[in-house]
């Protein structure tokens, strides 16, 4: 729904990543990126951002209103994105990595050729012929 809506509004999907959409608004590139239902939007104009947020909220209000976070430091998909310095953006994932390490089992001995469980490869299907 999001991809279709953005394209209807004149956004172009990135040919290399279909979860990135751009549109030239008032001569400036406006960008929307997303993963499942988490969006990150950016533009230099607060008014343009507010306009797009209103449109998105109007579109999604039937399911649930958007949760919007603003500021110089944001949490997004386990990352801390820091815009406090001019012309620099800092991405920090220390908290995310530390949480992962805390949740690891204490016994990590053993070998594995793949992180996938072996049952994933037991499909019960017949092999295809070479032909």
What does this structure look like?
The structure is a single chain. This protein is of the alpha+beta class and 131 residues long. The chain folds into 2 domains: 1-68, no CATH class; 71-104, no CATH class. The chain is built from 3 helices and 7 strands; from the N terminus they run αββββαβββα. It has helices at residues 2-8, 46-60, 94-103; strands at 12-13, 20-25, 28-35, 38-42, 73-76, 79-82, 90-92. It has a 4-stranded antiparallel beta sheet with strand order 1-2-3-4, with helices on one face. Strands 5-6-7 form a 3-stranded antiparallel beta sheet. The longest helix has 15 residues, at 46-60. It is extended and about 55 Å long. It starts with a helix and ends in a 28-residue tail after the last helix. The relative contact order is 0.07.
Secondary structure layout:
Layout: H1 2-8, E1 12-13, E2 20-25, E3 28-35, E4 38-42, H2 46-60, E5 73-76, E6 79-82, E7 90-92, H3 94-103
Antiparallel strand pairs: 1-2, 2-3, 3-4, 5-6, 6-7
Short key terms for the protein model shown above:
131 residues, alpha+beta, 2 domains, four-stranded antiparallel beta sheet, 24% strand
């Amino acid at each position: 729904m999001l991809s279709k809506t953005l394209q209807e509004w004149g956004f172009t999907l990135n040919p290399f990543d279909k979860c990135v959409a751009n549109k030239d608004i008032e001569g400036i590139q406006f960008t929307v990126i997303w993963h499942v239902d988490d969006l990150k939007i950016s533009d230099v104009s607060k008014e343009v951002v507010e306009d797009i947020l209103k449109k998105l909220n109007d579109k999604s209000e039937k399911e649930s209103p958007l949760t919007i976070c603003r500021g110089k430091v944001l949490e997004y998909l386990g990352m801390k994105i820091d815009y406090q310095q001019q012309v620099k953006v800092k991405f920090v994932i220390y908290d995310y990595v530390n949480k992962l390490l805390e949740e690891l089992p204490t016994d990590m001995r053993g070998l594995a050729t793949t992180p996938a469980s072996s049952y994933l490869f037991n499909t019960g299907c017949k092999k295809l012929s070479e032909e």
